[in-house]
Amino acid sequence: MNKTVISNYIQPGLLLLYVPLLLLTLILFYLYKLDALSFVAYIGIQEKWFFFLNSKLSQYPNLQYNLTQLGDALVLLPFFSIFVVYVPKIWRSLLSASLVSAVFCNLLKKLFAVPRPAAVFDNESFVIIGKTLSGHTSLPSGHAITVFTTFTILMFTFMPQKQKYRIIWCTAIMIIGLIIAFTRVAVGAHYPLDVIIGSIIGYISGLLGIFINQKYKIWGWVGNKKYYPVFILAFSICIIILINKIINENLIIFYLSLISLIISLYIITYVYVKK
């Protein structure tokens, strides 16, 4: 599989950063034109859309609550843990991209300090699924950043060779990413623009992760059997965390993530022990 991925792998160029940066610029200009650069106005121009999307999307609470957990890296990444053995190239980019996205997410949340819907609106006026989040950390959506950081790397790693299939592949990845990202509106945790901006930043983070890995090779040891114990330990810790999540919230998505991780732990341990 790794040889196939390497032969098909599309190395993105810096030009691909222009589109997301242009989108962020257009959003900034849009907010400026509406005089919505303060958090009060930023929330005000989205109020109707937030209530509309929240009421429509929250009609499937169990589905939305399960899907929104994929914005948690500890739930999403175990689904791709097997690639440590079979396609380590993915994890080399993922590690760099995850660090970049974490920096972006934390800095921007502190910079903007936009209050979440539950901190602004009457909690009885919209649907809240799961825990009520009421901090000043709404912009950008960290879950959207995580999803698009990961999906961007997957998109380029498994990019089809034929142009027509590339269009279908990229479109499908983006649509699935947005469906997962907008669960944050469904559960009442974010405004629509939080999700859109977070998705764009996630895409940028994914690209930067690929660029960093191409230039510096700092994660070249990933895929080397000598370092498998590092992943065996990491997988074991994540299994404990997922079990704890299942104890607290008995969600199907946690079981699926746990099963993926257990299978990966078995395979990587078997490969490491086998001489």
UniProtKB/TrEMBL annotation:
Residues spanning the membrane: 12-32, 67-87, 94-112, 141-160, 167-189, 195-214, 226-247, 253-273
SUPFAM superfamilies linked: Acid phosphatase/Vanadium-dependent haloperoxidase
Entry-linked InterPro entries: PAP2/HPO, PAP2/HPO_sf
Gene Ontology molecular functions: hydrolase activity
Keyword flag Thylakoid: no
Subcellular location: Cell membrane
Pfam families in the cross-refs: PAP2
Descriptive protein name: Phosphatase PAP2 family protein
Species assigned in the record: Chryseobacterium lactis
